[in-house]
């Protein structure tokens, strides 16, 4: 499809949105970002000059806020979410209302001609079978509240129709609204700053994808909407189905004095242990551009600038 679509992104000032919104603007789209700016940052300051950019402050769960913004939208990208099992467990009501119910509200208010591109998590696959790739046909068996709310949201979007769901691998890379808690980002941060990490469940495997490739996948979905719609697609690096241990070995190539050891100190609330096939989206012509190593190199540079310590004099 030609450029120049009008796109509403809820939660568009977050980790994904602050990469995605500028990319969509650069491609010639009109972008409205609705966000509550709960992280008290201004990651979209640099696109305010763009006449195709509009910022709205408000809650993505509030019908009165959403309704007027939808009037002009061709495409809706609901990024507003409490992301990750720990955050969802801390605010269960907020998780359900933001991750699931706000998407149901959108499907009720949207016309049949409006399109939705929906991010969910491939942690919905839970515990995979050894040596067996999870495809889009693999049953979704989420374990955490986070996984459940996202799987329910995907169902709501696809049931409404005129929607694409992207089941995202664990995202990594620098973003203006940075998240250090994501696995690759976290491990590189520890490698750079602590030179060490203690691993639990070190041989559990998962898939990874660069944040810029997530933005590219959404743009690919916009450009190929008619042929891709009403389906779910795994989005990840096919050469990066790695265990935590293998991930640390990759980081050590770039941070040679990085030490990692195993200890039974915790467990993944999502029990993520699976390998994922990204063949379906690759067959539509999408290929990731950024490797895991590209991201590690980028993060090392980023952490030269970013010190996550607001307390302390040094």
Give an account of the 3D structure.
It is a single chain. The chain has 314 residues and is α/β, with parallel strands linked by helices. It has a domain at 6-172 and 208-236: Rossmann fold, CATH 3.40.50.720. 37% of the residues lie in helices and 20% in strands. The strands form 4 sheets. It has a 7-stranded parallel beta sheet, sandwiched between helices. The model has no long low-confidence stretch (mean pLDDT 93).
SSE topology:
Elements: E1 6-10, H1 17-26, E2 30-35, E3 53-57, H2 63-70, E4 75-78, H3 85-90, H4 92-109, E5 115-121, E6 133-134, H5 145-160, E7 163-168, E8 170-172, H6 183-193, E9 196-199, E10 205-210, H7 211-223, H8 225-228, E11 231-235, E12 241-243, H9 244-254, E13 259-262, E14 275-276, H10 279-282, H11 292-305
Parallel strand pairs: 1-2, 1-4, 2-3, 4-5, 5-7, 6-14, 7-11, 8-10, 9-13
Antiparallel strand pairs: 10-12
């Amino acid at each position: 499809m030609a450029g120049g679509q009008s796109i509403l992104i809820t939660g568009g000032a977050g980790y994904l949105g602050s990469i995605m919104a500028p990319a969509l603007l650069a491609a010639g789209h009109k972008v409205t970002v609705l966000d509550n700016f709960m992280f008290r940052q201004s990651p979209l300051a640099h696109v305010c000059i763009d006449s195709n950019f509009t910022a709205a402050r408000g809650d993505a769960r509030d019908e009165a806020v959403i309704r007027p913004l939808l009037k002009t939208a061709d495409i809706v990208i609901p990024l507003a979410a409490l992301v990750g099992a720990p955050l969802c467990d801390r605010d269960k009501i907020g998780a359900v209302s933001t991750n699931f119910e706000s998407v149901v509200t959108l499907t009720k208010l949207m016309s049949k001609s409006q399109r939705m591109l929906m991010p969910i998590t491939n942690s919905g696959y839970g515990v995979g079978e050894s040596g067996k790739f999870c495809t889009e046909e693999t049953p979704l068996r989420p374990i955490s509240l986070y996984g459940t709310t996202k799987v329910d949201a995907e169902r709501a979007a696809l049931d409404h129709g005129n929607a694409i769901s992207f089941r995202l691998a664990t995202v990594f890379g620098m973003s203006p609204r940075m998240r250090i808690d994501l696995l690759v980002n976290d491990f590189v941060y520890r490698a750079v700053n602590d030179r060490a990490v203690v691993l639990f469940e070190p041989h559990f495997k998962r898939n990874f994808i660069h944040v810029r490739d997530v933005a590219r996948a959404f743009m690919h979905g916009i450009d190929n909407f008619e042929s891709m719609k009403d389906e779910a697609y795994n989005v990840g690096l096919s050469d990066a189905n790695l265990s935590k241990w293998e991930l640390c070995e990759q980081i050590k190539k770039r941070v040679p004095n990085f030490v990692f050891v195993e200890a039974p100190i915790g467990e993944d609330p999502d029990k993520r242990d699976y390998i994922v096939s990204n063949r379906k989206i690759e067959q539509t012509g999408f290929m990731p551009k950024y490797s895991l190593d590209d991201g590690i190199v980028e993060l090392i540079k980023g952490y030269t600038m970013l010190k996550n310590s607001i307390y302390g004099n040094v």
